[in-house]
Write a structure and sequence with these properties.
Layout lengths: L17 H7 L8 E5 L7 H19 L5 E3 L18 E5 L3 H8 L3 E3 L4 E5 L8 E6 L6 H13 L1 H11 L10 H11 L1 E6 L6 E6 L7 H12 L3 E3 L3 E6 L26
Antiparallel strand pairs: 1-3, 1-5, 2-3, 4-5, 6-8, 6-10, 7-8, 9-10
């Protein structure tokens, strides 16, 4: 099954109304889950009622738990009353046994004859996707991968990375050189062409040096603010927004969604 690469650790609950999110977080994470439905954005009231019914039936069939309840998202609004964009598309699954939650979470993606949906934890998860770059002219993998890796070699960026990694228990007992090499080796890129000879996008992925969401965001943004210049491919700069309307992932558009043809199972 493909992976949904999110743009932020809290991307799934982005722009959920604060009081609703606070209420959701009162429940034990061992007996709750977040769900997003494939190819559905923020639901109208009628859509929400229908989706809750169909989703509940699917989860009962998957888990065998008949007490499951589901809440639709309430959108956060600006001072003028308009919904902040993008409005939330997640549903909160609760009042479900721990065994049922474990059964539900053993797959990140479920596809039935009536509905397809993704399952997430409510707690934030730091993604491997850092950002997407636009502006390069050629799909030269090795050259652009080295261009990205050079950014982590810059003295200020290396110092920042090390200051985070040395506080991370995952790197305990490793030397600075070993930590730096591990993080560099985790860097990878993928290409996305909108159409033949159209704009070229480069997705950048990397292991996080920290377990702190706030620290990761600052580290990611510091790297994203750089200009990634290659003498043969021009320069790439961070693209601020990219989202698939199907899986809600942040490293491709709908027509390139890897979940579109996923078989029922």
């Amino acid at each position: 099954i493909p992976i949904v690469h999110r743009a932020d650790p809290e991307d799934v609950v982005l722009h959920v109304e604060d009081f609703q999110l606070q209420e959701w977080r009162k429940w034990s994470p061992r007996s709750t889950a977040l769900v997003e439905i494939y190819d559905q954005g923020f639901p109208t009231n009628l859509e929400a009622r229908l989706c809750i019914s169909v989703l509940a039936d699917a989860i009962r069939a998957v888990t065998g738990c008949w007490t499951v309840e589901i809440a639709a998202p309430i959108p956060k609004r600006a001072e003028d009353g308009s919904m902040l964009q993008p409005p939330p598309a997640c549903y909160f699954v609760y009042n479900i046994s721990r065994t049922a939650v474990n059964n539900l979470k053993r797959l990140a993606f479920w596809r039935t004859e009536t509905i397809s949906f993704f399952v997430y934890d409510l707690s934030p998860t730091i993604p491997t996707l850092l950002f997407t770059l636009e502006g390069f002219t050629h799909c030269r993998h090795r050259a652009l991968l080295e261009t990205v890796r050079r950014a982590l070699h810059l003295p200020q960026r290396r110092e920042h990375t090390m200051s985070l990694a040395l506080e991370n228990p995952e790197f305990q007992g490793m030397t600075e050189d070993a930590i730096h090499t591990t993080i560099l080796d985790s860097v990878r890129i993928s290409f996305l062409e909108l159409y033949v000879n159209g704009p070229l996008l480069v997705n950048v992925y990397c292991r996080s040096p920290t377990t702190s969401v706030a620290e990761w965001r600052m580290w990611r943004d510091a790297l994203g603010d750089l200009a990634y210049v290659n003498p043969l491919c021009r320069a790439g700069q961070r693209l601020r927004w990219l989202r698939c309307s199907g899986c809600h992932g942040a490293d491709h558009f709908r027509r390139r969604c890897p979940f579109a043809g996923t078989p029922i199972g």
